[in-house]
């Protein structure tokens, strides 16, 4: 049996740990495993490399992906897709394991519909897939944001300012929510709930009047301009307000313990699902690894942790 693996779309900490788990499990089972360099672009161009034990040595702690990743417009064309199918046929690949987020798993779904045995593994710092509790890379991104806010708070308090910290997540507010709770931020702004700038301003003024010298507001990128918000907030409160956009720093760094364990679980189980000729996307639900059909993956709505939001509002006075 031959299994191929590729990483696609935005990178996420834990991709390398997943690759390692897939390769080591394949070798344990006597399965040949090939890495596809450059995601779906590499699949189109047949950039296959046989992977052995040494290929994945000392990578569990590394961010990024040793297979590299791209976003492929050619894969969306009929010509590009046919080339991708032909590459799998030429190399006699029995199953393909795809690591990536929403767009990558949609590509996996397309291959599955064309008759390819495909197993998807959710790797995205956004945690925006509704069928799984967590995606690989999310907890590491939360850790990165939390550490950055600790540094920002020091200088914000020294100058008696407020700081609006813009975090990634597209239309999902999970990074803002989880990092808000873990960093002790005073307020968060997420796409899932309407923003009340007056409520945020009132909380800041109450804090200022009792002697508080800083106010951290975490804003998810899907909520509009952090700079416009900061301008309006400063006008309402009179508090000197700055903006910090963390950007791609959130995607890098060594994966957290949580992500290394989750990656190892996903990689291990992906091989056995592929071996049994089962297609779909792996997920983690209440601590158990599950497989969901590609059709259902995109129909299950993401549930926002409103309970955590209430906790943040209560303890961040």
TrEMBL record:
Q: Which cofactor does it need?
A: Mg(2+)
Q: Which reaction does it catalyse?
A: beta-D-fructose 6-phosphate + ATP = beta-D-fructose 1,6-bisphosphate + ADP + H(+)
Q: In which pathway does it act?
A: Carbohydrate degradation; glycolysis; D-glyceraldehyde 3-phosphate and glycerone phosphate from D-glucose: step 3/4
Summary of the function given for this chain in its UniProt record: Catalyzes the phosphorylation of D-fructose 6-phosphate to fructose 1,6-bisphosphate by ATP, the first committing step of glycolysis.
Query: Which residue numbers delimit the Phosphofructokinase domain?
Result: 2-272
**Protein residues bound to ATP:** 10, 71-72, 101-104
Q: Which UniProt keywords apply?
A: Allosteric enzyme, ATP-binding, Cytoplasm, Glycolysis, Kinase, Magnesium, Metal-binding, Nucleotide-binding, Transferase
Top EC class of this enzyme:
transferase
Subunit field text = Homotetramer.
Q: Report the EC number(s), separated by commas if there are several.
A: 2.7.1.11
Q: Where does ADP bind?
A: 20-24, 153, 184-186, 210, 212-214
Q: How is its activity regulated?
A: Allosterically activated by ADP and other diphosphonucleosides, and allosterically inhibited by phosphoenolpyruvate.
- Protein name as catalogued: ATP-dependent 6-phosphofructokinase
Q: Where is Mg(2+) annotated to bind?
A: 102
Q: Any idea which positions bind substrate? A: 124-126, 161, 168-170, 221, 242, 248-251
Asked if the record carries the keyword Phosphoprotein, the reply is no
Q: According to its UniProt record, which residues of this chain constitute the active site?
A: 126 (proton acceptor)
Q: Which organism is it from?
A: Peptoniphilus ovalis
Protein family (similarity comment): Belongs to the phosphofructokinase type A (PFKA) family. ATP-dependent PFK group I subfamily. Prokaryotic clade 'B1' sub-subfamily.
Taxonomy of origin reads: Bacteria, Bacillati, Bacillota, Tissierellia, Tissierellales
């Amino acid at each position: 049996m031959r299994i191929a693996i590729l990483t696609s779309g935005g990178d996420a900490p834990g991709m390398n740990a997943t690759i390692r788990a897939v390769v080591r499990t394949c070798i344990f089972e006597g399965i040949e495993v090939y890495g596809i360099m450059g995601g779906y672009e590499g699949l189109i161009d047949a950039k296959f490399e046989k992977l052995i034990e040494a290929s994945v040595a000392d990578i569990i702690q590394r961010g990024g992906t040793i297979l590299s990743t791209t976003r492929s417009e050619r894969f969306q064309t009929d010509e590009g897709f046919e080339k991708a199918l032909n590459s799998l046929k030429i190399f006699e690949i029995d199953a393909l394991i795809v690591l990536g987020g929403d767009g990558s798993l949609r590509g996996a779904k397309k291959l599955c519909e064309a008759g390819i045995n495909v197993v998807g593994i959710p790797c995205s710092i956004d945690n925006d897939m509704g069928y799984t509790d967590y995606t690989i890379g999310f907890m590491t991104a939360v850790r990165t944001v939390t550490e950055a806010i600790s540094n920002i708070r020091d200088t914000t308090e020294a100058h008696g300012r407020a700081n609006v910290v813009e975090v990634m997540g597209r239309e999902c507010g999970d990074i803002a929510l989880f990092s808000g709770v873990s960093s002790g931020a005073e307020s968060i702004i997420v796409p899932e709930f309407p923003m009340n700038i007056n409520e945020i301003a009132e909380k800041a003024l109450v804090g200022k009047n009792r002697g508080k010298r800083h106010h951290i507001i975490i804003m998810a990128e899907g909520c509009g301009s952090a700079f416009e918000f900061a301008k309006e907030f400063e006008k309402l409160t009179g508090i000197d307000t700055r903006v910090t956009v963390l950007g791609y720093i959130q995607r890098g760094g060594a994966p957290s313990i949580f992500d290394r364990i989750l990656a190892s679980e996903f990689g291990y189980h992906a091989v056995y699902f592929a071996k049994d000729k089962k297609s779909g996307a792996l997920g983690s639900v209440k601590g158990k690894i599950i497989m969901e059909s590609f059709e259902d993956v995109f129909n299950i709505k993401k549930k926002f942790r409103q309970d955590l939001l209430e906790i943040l509002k209560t303890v961040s006075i």
